[in-house]
Amino acid sequence: MRKNYPYTPLRLKPDFVICDQNEKPLIILDAKFSFDIEEDDENEEMEGIDKEAPPIFKPKFSNIIKMHAYKDSLKALTAIVL
Questions:
Q1: How far is residue 54 CA from its own chain's centroid?
Q2: Bridging pattern class, strands 35-38 and 56-59
Q3: What is the pLDDT of residues 34-51, one digit of tens each?
Q4: Which terminus of the chain has fewer CB atoms gathered within 10 Å of its CB, N or C?
């Protein structure tokens, strides 16, 4: 399902759209293979805590915004970043 959106000149296309029997979009799924990496600075201040804590991986904010755009423009029930 490819659609033009009034707020961007880009043609956006979600990876997967699950529709009901009337072709109304219900769930939008889009695979994203990028993360924002956040270091846990609080561990440096605490004594006795492993200072080599693994980084925290969070979804990119821009990908979350794109999923909201898909959901709102297609009037789906939900949109999920995979």
A1: 22
A2: antiparallel
A3: 888 877 655 455 555 556
A4: C
* DSSP sequence for 26-67: EEEEE----EEEE--THHHHSTTS-TTPPPEEEE-HHHHHHH
The letter for the amino acid at 19 is C
**Reduced to 3 states, what is the DSSP secondary structure of residue 9?**
strand
Give the strand pairing for 25-30 and 78-81: parallel
The H or E element that residue 16 is part of is strand 16-19
Work out the mean pLDDT of the chain and round it to a whole number: 78
Kindly give, in sequence order, each residue whose CB lies less than 8 Å from that of residue 59, ignoring residues fewer than 6 positions away. 32, 35, 36, 81
Instruction: List the beta bridge partners of residue 27.
Output: 18, 78
Would you state the structure tokens that stand for residue 73, as one six-digit string? 């423009």
Residue 5, Cβ neighbours under 10 Å: how many? 14
